[in-house]
Amino acid sequence: MITGGCGFIGSHLTEYFIKMNYSVIVIDNLRSGNFKIKAPNVKYYEIDYRSKKVDQVFKLEAPDYVIHLAAQIDVKSSNDDPLYDANMNIIGTINLLQLCKIHNVKRFVFASTSAVYGNQGQGPVNETAKLQPISFYGVSKLSSELYIQQFSHQFSLPYTIFRYSNVYGPRQRSDNEGGVIPIFVKNLNKGIHPIIFGDGSQTRDFIHVHDVAHANYLALQSEENTIMNISSNHSTSITDLYEIISKICDEPVEPIYEIQRSGDILFSQLDNIKAFEKLGWRPQKSLEEGIIEMSKYVKSIGG
Ligand SMILES: NC(=O)c1ccc[n+]([C@@H]2O[C@H](COP(=O)([O-])OP(=O)(O)OC[C@H]3O[C@@H](n4cnc5c(N)ncnc54)[C@H](O)[C@@H]3O)[C@@H](O)[C@H]2O)c1
Asked: Which segments constitute the NAD-dependent epimerase/dehydratase domain (predicted)?
């Protein structure tokens, strides 16, 4: 079962698991996603993952594994309305955990985020770093992590928690965590000056969505309950990102610099050694390769 399977990451996971011969059940209320993969063995339930109807789906389908991606993902919205964010991200996750416990799910895989770390300064951050989120989104994801661990502790529910860095790739919306890539690609393809907030020295760690899908696949083969970063372990400044994307544009235009946004993390780079040690996972796609693919995708949808 994949919650949020019609979203950016969820639709890639659905495709990946179909390719690996799994039967996939998707729960999605189409709040922000709309990518239904047309494959005979995907079953879509258009419902809210917090609703009572999810119980019926568990009874009917008896999923072996639950990959929980559906969420309120917007950092700014979380700060504007922490109650809504908590209801979606914390209460909704508890609802699923209860059902996983009742229906003896073999593993619960959770999409957490680098936002749980907050500002850590430069250099790679590993899973043992002090957790100090600077947004309610980071707080609600961290709370979910604690609930998952408590369910595992009290009811032996096996789990894998992935803390993703900035995920990018085809079908990505511009308002999610790696959104700067589709925005820059779209603007530069059209000759529109991209906006850089601050001086462009802030860094991000971009990981391709196919690498994320592969990590989820490996998680289902694993026996351990653990928390792992899924990242490239490279920090790319926004200025460098602009340079990489301009190189593949026919007529690149200069960026416009605007005042730095409050609440933006300055440096982001996640250590990914644990995912290699525990799952044998390593990122396969370079940022340059991924951006060329992204540019083709954006053009193909008329962006
Ligand atoms: N994109 C990133 O860079 C990134 C980084 C770190 C963590 N994550 C996490 O990965 C997960 C997926 O992110 P995404 O970028 O694919 O987001 P997305 O918005 O593209 O996908 C989320 C999906 O969940 C569905 N959904 C939302 N609320 C729902 C509800 N109440 N009931 C049922 N379905 C609902 C949406 O319709 C959408 O299809 C999220 O949990 C997010 O916090 C994403």
From this structure: 1-230
